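pinned: reference chain
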Amino acid sequence: MVLLGAGHAHVQVLAALAAHPLVSVNIVLVAPYPRQMYSGMVPGFVAGHYTLDDCTIPLEPLVRRAGVRWLQRSVKALDARTQTVQLDDGSTLHYDWLSVNTGPTQNRELLDRAMPGVREHGLFLRPIEAFAALWPKVSALGDTRPLRMAVIGGGAGGIELAFAVRHRLPNASVTLVSGSTPPGANYPAKVQERLLAALKKHRITVLQDTAIGITAGEVRLACGAGLACDVPLIATGAQPPLWLAASGLALDAQGFLAVDACQRSTSHAQVFAAGDVCTRMDRSLARSGVYAVRAGPALAHNLAAATAGQPLKPHRPPQTTLNLLSCGERYAIATWGHFSAQGRWVWWLKNWIDRRFLARYKTGA
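pinned: its structure tokens
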């Protein structure tokens, strides 16, 4: 069995393997980084509330307890017909069973076609590990002089990033370029009102416009204007990894891996997936870390069941989930369906949930 990626779901699979090893199954984990960053705490890291260690799960202790072989490599190609994975060092792995949880990506080539110059001048949020290594240099520069910061992307990730930047760099000018829709357009109207009020309170300029190009010192907008900018932060939505396109696996219209209610490929029964890399074809679910976390136990169960020839169990996540948006300072907005609330208590709730999740997998690290 090959596990591609060490995302939120696979961290839980590794913990399950430590507790209940699979009999006569050799397992290989392919994951390039020594630790898994918990995406829900990245805005807190940017804001200065957390250290990098606070936001990460070291993989070595998890791998050791699970008894799996770990290759610190990245995937270059996948061939579902031959059941092989090619790695970035040129080596090839054969699999009988495959599970994919590589997390979201930002396709630089695709984005550079839509936004020329972004590859050269943009600071990308993904991969998070690379962003986390570069952010301290940006914040240190911001301590020496006021910076002109622009966050490109009006989804939850972009909004939280804008708030976090404002908190960490109070003397910077911060602009959120939300695209053709207002910030948080997928949230209920009341939540959008709360977000816009909080953005205004924190002196974050909102431009409902599309970035169409980036040069040194400027973001070009679709309206024809130029936005002066020292650091453009790219927080656009997730794209599928490039190696999926030619894999031979069934994909959805956007190129994400198509899976059924059991998190199994709709075209290849020996392939499973969870998280942002895949799309449930039986129901519509937001591409959110909340669902990736919830899919972990179900994925672990079905991988064990599949290898033992046992029936699989459908994973039925709730349609409504608690969503917590941090607002830079220790303050957050909560949504549950059409219900919403905000305050410091929401941030402390988020902090408790996030720390509890990490503590569960850091034990013994």
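why pinned: The longest helix spans residues 289-307. The chain has a mean pLDDT of 95.
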